[in-house]
Design a protein that fits this description.
Strand content of chain A: under 5%
Oligomer: homodimer
Low-confidence stretches of chain A: 259-263
Shape of chain A: elongated
CATH class of the largest domain in chain A: Mainly Alpha
GO molecular function (chains A, B): DNA-binding transcription factor activity; transcription cis-regulatory region binding
Organism (chains A, B): Streptomyces microflavus (Streptomyces lipmanii)
Structural class of chain A: mainly alpha
Keywords (chains A, B): DNA-binding, Transcription, Transcription regulation
CATH superfamily of the largest domain in chain A: Tetracycline Repressor, domain 2
InterPro entries (chains A, B): DesT_TetR_C, Homeodomain-like_sf, HTH-type_TetR-like_transc_reg, HTH_TetR
Protein name (chains A, B): TetR/AcrR family transcriptional regulator
Number of helices of chain A: 12
CATH topology of the largest domain in chain A: Tetracycline Repressor, domain 2
Mean pLDDT of chain A: 89
Chain lengths: 263, 263
């Protein structure tokens, strides 16, 4: 069975890895398991098998065991998710938001069970540290959306020349992000229906509607909406929604003062 | 010091209570503490002091200690909150939703820290049971809102003659409820500003806008909106919002196909 000629390369699992490479390899294996199973259901043995290493080696890198490994994997998923929000500030803002949502929904799709377990809470591995990681992602998401609305959020660096978002606009964006999270969980519950592109379209419509409703009573949001509209096109999300909403709004004509006066 | 004449009545703490009365008294005391402090920061000694009883008596009623007492107090708060959603199905639907939100925001105000700690997660007393209690309240809230939209949700009893809500409408209502929760937490973070009535007005506007945006692409929601509009008045929330949104929508006229054709 042994031959001196054409010896195969040593199996990959036994390749000598640097500390950083080994850590990254363990995290990738852990994330693969945590993505599709509730954290409480993933054992360190499985992580070791998935990474092709021994259990003691997993403990050498993560002496805190599953809890520490879960938090590290979550941190790495959070970094990956935060990268999804990065989008160049060019073109119609609703189309930028649509591209961000496409990447976000792809992430949700690829981390389905882990995403649900994390956001639903009640897990034994949930701690104030895991909550802090999730809150960091929410803050990054809010900052990204505010930047496409031409404002800066409370947590990013304060660049000069760009205005800080006021309290109502910040509340609006953070509420919408909570609604997006809720819709994502429902989407997973319902077997990923409707198709991701349809859900994304509705979430963009939701943001546009929320901007319009908030502009009605908040001067800052009204000014943001005026600036945005100049960048939108008739065949983009805002144009399509405006066209579809006109018949709905037309049915509300009797609510307007002039209609009442004509009664 | 002892006198046979005019003996004072025995102090209230020593009054003989039935098992049910005693349990209720302990829950009221616990809820008072859990409402304004994080559950991890409330000790059983404090609950005993607040109720005017001994620590062993608290343990006799709640042998599981703080965890059991917290879950019972949470269940009792959940019942109280669910009662807030009950609103007769008469008058303009947006005004019914406004009254429900007024009661809900009063509850949030009265249980501020406990409400935040619960929804923010990461608490050591959070379990799958506490998550189930919170989910039950969310389901009850969704059912209540759907009933004011003339539909029944998935979790209530199926009454004849009323249509079940379709998937998009249910997702819309549940997303809005998540947004209301997020806005409530932000409201508490920002020292309960803006005033509750102003926040409530914005949350109603948010629901109306979401209904209009969803009606644009979902036939069932469009039919719900047509039925609702017939019940609304020009001086109610829908009328006021319609009046305020018209100037905002007017600025989007260039997005509409006929405006493009005229270019």
């Amino acid at each position: 069975m042994t031959s001196t000629a054409a010896a195969p390369p040593p199996p990959r699992a036994y390749r000598r890895l640097s500390v950083e490479e080994r850590r990254a390899q363990l995290l990738v294996a852990a994330l693969g398991l945590f993505a599709h199973r509730a954290p409480d259901e993933v054992s360190l043995d499985e992580v070791a098998v998935a990474a092709g290493v021994s259990r003691p080696l997993v403990y050498r890198y993560f002496p805190g065991g599953r809890q520490q490994l879960y938090e590290a994997a979550l941190g790495s998923a959070a970094d990956e998710l935060t990268l999804c929000f990065s989008e160049p500030p060019v073109g119609p803002p609703t189309e930028r938001v649509a591209r961000v949502l496409d990447r976000y929904l792809r992430f949700v799709d690829e981390h389905d069970t882990g995403f649900s377990a994390l956001l639903r809470g009640g897990s034994v591995v949930e701690t104030s540290r895991t909550t802090t990681i999730v809150d960091g992602v929410r803050r990054a998401a809010a900052d990204a959306i505010l930047s496409h609305l031409g404002r800066i959020g409370g947590s990013g660096p304060q660049s000069t020349g760009t205005r800080s978002a006021g309290p109502r606009l910040r509340m609006m964006v953070r509420s919408w992000i909570a609604a997006v999270e809720a819709a994502s969980l429902i989407w997973l519950d319902e077997g990923k229906r409707p198709p991701a592109a349809e859900l994304r379209g509705w979430l963009v419509d939701h943001l546009i509607a929320l901007l319009a409703a908030t502009a009605a009573t908040d001067e800052e949001t009204a000014s943001v909406v005026r600036d945005l509209l100049a960048l939108e096109t008739s065949d983009g999300p805002a144009g399509r929604l405006a066209e579809l909403v006109v018949p709905v709004v037309a049915e509300a004509a009797h609510l307007l003062p002039h209609a009442t006066a004509a009664d």
